[in-house]
Amino acid sequence: MGTREWLLRRCEDTFGREDATPDTADEGCRTPLSWAAGNGDEDVVKMLFEREDVTPSAADNDGRKPLPWAAGKGCEGIVKMLLRQRDANADTADNDGRTPLGWAEEWRLIRAADIFLERCCVLLLL
Fold first, then answer.
1. How many independent structural domains does the chain possess?
2. What pTM, to 2 d.p., does this model score?
3. How deeply is 49 buried, as exposed, middle or buried, from its count of CB atoms within 10 A (0-12, 13-18, 19+)?
4. Which one has a higher pLDDT value, 66 or 6?
5. Which domain holds residue 87?
6. Which one of 25, 40, 74, 85 is at 20 to 30 Å from 115 when CA atoms are compared?
Protein backbone atom coordinates (compact mmCIF):
# COMPACT_ATOMS: atom_id res chain seq x y z
CA MET A 1 0.00 0.00 0.00
CA GLY A 2 1.34 3.43 -0.95
CA THR A 3 1.63 6.41 1.38
CA ARG A 4 -1.43 8.13 -0.08
CA GLU A 5 -3.58 5.03 0.30
CA TRP A 6 -2.35 4.55 3.86
CA LEU A 7 -3.10 8.19 4.70
CA LEU A 8 -6.58 8.08 3.20
CA ARG A 9 -7.32 4.85 5.08
CA ARG A 10 -6.03 6.43 8.28
CA CYS A 11 -8.34 9.41 7.79
CA GLU A 12 -11.29 7.14 7.08
CA ASP A 13 -10.54 4.97 10.10
CA THR A 14 -10.10 8.00 12.33
CA PHE A 15 -13.25 9.77 11.19
CA GLY A 16 -15.24 6.53 11.33
CA ARG A 17 -14.64 6.11 15.07
CA GLU A 18 -17.27 7.47 17.40
CA ASP A 19 -14.73 9.16 19.69
CA ALA A 20 -12.48 10.45 16.92
CA THR A 21 -11.89 13.99 15.74
CA PRO A 22 -9.75 15.14 12.80
CA ASP A 23 -7.07 15.91 15.36
CA THR A 24 -6.96 12.38 16.77
CA ALA A 25 -3.25 11.63 16.94
CA ASP A 26 -1.22 8.45 16.61
CA GLU A 27 1.34 7.20 19.14
CA GLY A 28 3.78 9.94 18.09
CA CYS A 29 1.05 12.57 18.49
CA ARG A 30 0.94 13.14 14.72
CA THR A 31 -2.46 13.99 13.32
CA PRO A 32 -3.79 13.17 9.85
CA LEU A 33 -3.01 16.79 8.87
CA SER A 34 0.57 16.42 10.05
CA TRP A 35 1.01 13.23 8.01
CA ALA A 36 -0.60 14.75 4.91
CA ALA A 37 1.54 17.90 5.19
CA GLY A 38 4.74 15.91 5.64
CA ASN A 39 3.91 13.62 2.72
CA GLY A 40 3.03 16.45 0.35
CA ASP A 41 -0.55 15.32 -0.19
CA GLU A 42 -2.34 18.55 -1.09
CA ASP A 43 -5.65 16.76 -1.77
CA VAL A 44 -5.81 15.32 1.74
CA VAL A 45 -4.78 18.66 3.27
CA LYS A 46 -7.59 20.37 1.32
CA MET A 47 -10.05 17.66 2.42
CA LEU A 48 -9.07 18.18 6.05
CA PHE A 49 -9.34 21.98 5.77
CA GLU A 50 -12.90 21.60 4.49
CA ARG A 51 -13.76 20.54 8.03
CA GLU A 52 -14.13 23.22 10.66
CA ASP A 53 -12.71 21.10 13.45
CA VAL A 54 -9.13 20.67 12.21
CA THR A 55 -6.38 22.31 14.24
CA PRO A 56 -3.42 23.25 12.01
CA SER A 57 -1.29 24.06 15.04
CA ALA A 58 -1.37 20.62 16.73
CA ALA A 59 2.20 19.60 17.63
CA ASP A 60 3.63 16.09 17.75
CA ASN A 61 5.87 14.65 20.48
CA ASP A 62 8.83 16.56 19.04
CA GLY A 63 6.96 19.86 19.02
CA ARG A 64 6.67 19.86 15.22
CA LYS A 65 3.46 21.13 13.72
CA PRO A 66 2.21 20.46 10.18
CA LEU A 67 3.91 23.63 8.87
CA PRO A 68 7.50 22.54 9.61
CA TRP A 69 6.70 19.05 8.32
CA ALA A 70 5.61 20.55 4.99
CA ALA A 71 8.50 23.02 4.92
CA GLY A 72 11.07 20.32 5.67
CA LYS A 73 9.81 18.29 2.73
CA GLY A 74 9.63 21.27 0.34
CA CYS A 75 5.85 21.04 -0.10
CA GLU A 76 5.34 24.61 -1.30
CA GLY A 77 1.61 24.38 -1.98
CA ILE A 78 0.91 22.98 1.48
CA VAL A 79 3.17 25.56 3.12
CA LYS A 80 1.08 28.28 1.46
CA MET A 81 -2.19 26.62 2.54
CA LEU A 82 -1.00 26.33 6.13
CA LEU A 83 0.22 29.93 6.24
CA ARG A 84 -3.28 31.08 5.24
CA GLN A 85 -4.77 29.52 8.37
CA ARG A 86 -5.81 31.86 11.16
CA ASP A 87 -3.46 30.41 13.76
CA ALA A 88 -0.45 29.91 11.48
CA ASN A 89 2.80 30.94 13.08
CA ALA A 90 5.89 30.54 10.97
CA ASP A 91 8.13 31.46 13.91
CA THR A 92 7.11 28.64 16.25
CA ALA A 93 10.09 26.42 17.04
CA ASP A 94 9.97 22.70 17.74
CA ASN A 95 11.56 21.04 20.80
CA ASP A 96 14.99 21.33 19.14
CA GLY A 97 14.55 25.05 18.49
CA ARG A 98 14.03 24.74 14.72
CA THR A 99 11.41 26.83 12.95
CA PRO A 100 9.68 25.95 9.66
CA LEU A 101 12.15 28.24 7.87
CA GLY A 102 15.00 26.44 9.61
CA TRP A 103 13.71 23.08 8.39
CA ALA A 104 13.45 24.36 4.82
CA GLU A 105 16.95 25.84 4.99
CA GLU A 106 18.44 22.70 6.56
CA TRP A 107 17.28 20.58 3.65
CA ARG A 108 18.21 23.30 1.13
CA LEU A 109 14.64 23.65 -0.05
CA ILE A 110 15.13 27.14 -1.42
CA ARG A 111 11.62 27.75 -2.76
CA ALA A 112 9.98 26.68 0.50
CA ALA A 113 12.39 28.95 2.40
CA ASP A 114 11.58 31.83 0.03
CA ILE A 115 7.87 31.55 0.92
CA PHE A 116 8.68 32.27 4.57
CA LEU A 117 11.07 35.08 3.69
CA GLU A 118 8.50 36.69 1.36
CA ARG A 119 5.87 36.48 4.09
CA CYS A 120 8.29 38.03 6.58
CA CYS A 121 9.00 40.96 4.24
CA VAL A 122 5.26 41.56 3.68
CA LEU A 123 4.61 41.59 7.44
CA LEU A 124 7.45 44.04 7.99
CA LEU A 125 5.98 46.38 5.35
CA LEU A 126 2.50 46.39 6.95
1. 1
2. 0.75
3. middle
4. 66
5. 3-125
6. 25
